[in-house]
Amino acid sequence: MGALSRTGEAEPARVSRPPAPVAPDATDVVLAVDGGGSKTDVVAIALDGTIVGHARGPGSNPQTRGWDLAGPILDDVRARVVGELGDRRIRTTHVYLAGLDLHDELVAAESALAHWEADGGAPHVLDNDLFALLRAGTLSPDAAAVVCGTGINALAVRADGTTARFPAIGDISGDWGGGAWLGNRALWHAARADDGRGPETALTAAVPAAVGLHSVREVTEAIHFGRLDPGVVNRLCPVLFEVAGAGDRVARSVVERQAEEIVLLAAVALERLGLGRSSAEAVPVVLGGGVLAARHPLLVDGVVAGLAARVPGAVPTWVTDPPVLGAGLAALESVGADDDALDRYREAVRSRAFASTTALIR
User: Fold this and answer.
1) 30 with 345: CB under 8 angstroms?
2) Given Cys at both, which of 140, 147, 298, 299 links 289, Cβ 3.0 to 4.6 Å?
3) For residue 165, which of 138, 139, 147, 140 has the smallest C-alpha distance?
4) Which neighbouring-strand residues pair with 51?
């Protein structure tokens, strides 16, 4: 079982087992898997840090898609990489997925991916994608991470292995924000301004323009009658930030509220572990996911100011690299890769055509 948080709640049990005790071979690889709300990356990495295989598929968050959809997506993306490895042996597999927040979710994930044993091994590490983000941003044993991409989540870790986590299952667990939520708020405010229930906002014109329609009413009806996929609201998150940046009061209020929630998540997680209580106790707060990685000035300013006020020891650490960077670093370290290999992998990830780090949705 996992450690206890300061609230006394049992934390999820991380699936973790050491690689098989076999002599390493120069042709061995490690597999790193990152599955978010909008995309899934699988990377095969040689022990010297060279990327020897990469495939991408749609999002594989099992919490939102269910394993009936997420499982085949993961199988397909992984198979495309494994199928190109030839005789190379997989030494270890690290899998980090959005939506693995509760003990039962981790147990279900372990069961769903157990059949990978047949062609290279079931995951040696299986956990929430926040751990990949954390590794991409810091090696500090005391730290926090907040992801704000399609959704939002956070955790904190302490040197003794204790973690503080959140259920992160939406409204019913008290969550607020993330790219999909922000896009929805853009449409919500535009609709209320359009019919007179809310204050005027430039979103009234910007929202329909973003989806190629002429009015907010057209957008609402197109979603309602299935002419537009409800997922179109994800495309409205960048619109919200653009309008906010131009000074629109309504849009700015939403972005400012998002900054407050990011600060609150980090602060509460660190407070549960007794970390960051003074400026003399520097604790990295790793910030990533598409919304945060875009580093919109209004959001950055709000987060930096809020952390300084709430957590004196917090050191904001922005990660704009794709999450699979942290997954791969952790996998390489687990088999004893040296610093040169880690640096080579890091540079390889940054030089390849992974997702744009300026996108507002992950």
Assistant:
1) no
2) 147
3) 147
4) 45
330's CB contacts (< 8 A; 6+ apart) are: 32, 94, 125, 131, 132, 135
* Cα distance between residue 4 and residue 151, in whole Å: 25
Distance CA 304, CA 306 (A): 5
CA dist 250 → 130, 189, 198, 205 (Å): 31, 8, 9, 13
Residues 6+ apart with CB under 8 A from 345: 45, 49, 50, 51, 325, 328, 329, 332
49-53, Cβ contacts within 8 angstroms, sequence gap of 24 or more: 49/332, 49/337, 49/340, 49/341, 49/342, 49/343, 49/344, 49/345, 49/346, 49/348, 50/344, 50/345, 50/348, 51/345, 51/348, 51/349, 51/352, 52/85, 52/88, 53/29, 53/81, 53/82, 53/84, 53/85
Q: What is the Cα–Cα distance from 330 to 45, expressed in whole angstroms?
A: 12
Q: d(Cα 232, Cα 221) in Å, to the nearest integer? A: 13
Q: 74: which 2 tokens? A: 């993961």
Look up residue 235 and give its two tokens.
């495309």
What is the reported pTM? 0.87
List, for residues 29-64, the tens digit of each pLDDT value: 999 999 988 899 999 999 999 999 999 999 999 998
Give the residue from 232, 252, 223, 230 showing the smallest Cα distance to 240: 252
Partners of residue 35 on adjacent β-strands: 40, 97
Is the separation of the CB atoms in 321 and 180 below 8 Å? no
pLDDT tens digits, 223-256 = 999 999 988 998 999 999 999 999 999 999 999 9
Residue tagged 């926040």 (tokens): 130
Tell me how many helices (H) and strands (E) the chain has.
13, 11
- CA distances (Å), 273 to each of 5, 267, 308, in order? 7, 10, 18
Segment 169-214, tens digit of pLDDT:
889 999 999 999 999 999 999 999 999 999 999 999 999 999 999 9
